[in-house]
Design goal:
The structure holds two protein chains of two kinds. By secondary structure, chain A is of the alpha+beta class. Chain A has two helices and two strands. Chain A has a domain at 19-49. Chain A has helices at residues 2-9, 30-48, and strands spanning 20-23, 26-29. The longest helix of chain A is centred in the middle third of the chain and has 19 residues, at 30-48. Chain A starts with a helix and ends in a 14-residue tail after the last helix. Chain B is an all-alpha fold. The longest helix of chain B has 30 residues, at 74-103. The two termini of chain B are 36 Å apart. The chains are: A alpha+beta, B mainly alpha.
């Protein structure tokens, strides 16, 4: 069990100082930048990917 | 006064009738939703609530066992991580939900209070997460609280909200702010049920209105 957890934990080593990106006055950590990019990607996918079973719906509702 | 009239005057009767008028059972738990709800963009509100349930559940376990357990046992680490990552999912889904609702102008059709309760929930959630970060009882929480104190003090709130006071921060994190967040979410969901899910913009009507061939679409759409 411990070896499995160790293997999973070793995929991405987070046990170090954060990495930051600077553009002039603007500064952001890579971790935060990755999360923001993932949110934008998720948002776009949610708009474009068809919802399963959409054609089966009869509509209506309240 | 007859017996029936007396019953109708009771505060319990009046409250029940008021609640049922405001939110009839078939609106509170509807069997179907309009066709336009069949889109992934409508999923993120309920994902946020699902993540919140995990946050509260894992938080209850952490509260039962305490800091020594979550710092020094394998299961404690696991539950602690679940608490953190469900918060990450909570905010992730909440932000995508917010973007979706912003771009569809979800305050249309007398839904402004629904929008406002959502915004206030977002702010309350940030405060809840912040008090959680300073209550971890590790070097991370010490760093965050000592960095945050100057900012908080500059607002004047430091006189009653002391981020270096672990007991105070923990109580805000596990009692006051979760209560506020849960009550706001309940109110938000009740308002969503009351007014219904906001319909999308009528694209054809907008194009027709721009070309001057038809009247502008109604923005005050309220479901029956």
């Amino acid at each position: 069990m411990d070896s499995l957890l160790g293997a999973l934990a070793a995929i991405i080593n987070l046990n170090h100082q954060g990495t930051f990106i600077h553009w002039g006055w603007f500064q952001i950590s890579v971790a935060n930048l990755v999360v923001i990019i993932l949110m934008i990607v998720t948002f776009v996918i949610a708009l474009l990917v068809p919802f399963p079973g959409k054609n089966k719906r009869r509509g209506g509702g309240k | 006064m007859s017996y029936d009239e007396e019953i109708a005057q009771q505060w319990t009767t009046r409250v029940r009738r008021g609640v049922v008028d405001f939110l009839p059972p078939d609106k509170m738990l509807p069997d179907t939703q309009p066709n336009y709800v069949a889109s992934w963009i409508y999923v993120f509100g309920v994902v946020t609530i699902a993540a919140m349930i995990i946050v509260i559940g894992t938080g209850c376990i952490l509260a039962i066992e305490g800091p020594i357990w979550w710092h020094h046992s394998t299961l404690g680490h696991f539950i602690n991580s679940m608490h953190l990552w469900s918060v990450e999912i909570f905010f992730f889904a909440m932000v995508v939900h917010l973007w979706g609702k912003f771009f569809m102008a979800a305050w249309r059709g007398r839904r402004s209070l629904t929008w406002i309760t959502g915004v206030v929930t977002f702010v309350a959630s940030i405060a809840t997460a912040f008090t959680g970060y300073v209550s971890q009882t590790n070097f991370d929480s010490q760093w965050i609280s000592t960095q945050a104190k100057d900012g908080i003090n500059a607002t004047g709130a430091g006189s009653f909200f002391n981020v270096l006071n672990l007991g105070q921060m923990l109580m805000w994190h596990i009692v006051l702010l979760p209560l506020v967040a849960v009550l706001l979410v309940v109110l938000h969901v009740i308002l969503v049920r009351h007014r219904g899910v906001v319909p999308p913009f009528d694209e054809a009507a907008i194009k027709a209105a721009k070309s001057g061939t038809a009247p502008a679409p109604a923005t005050e759409e309220v479901p029956a």
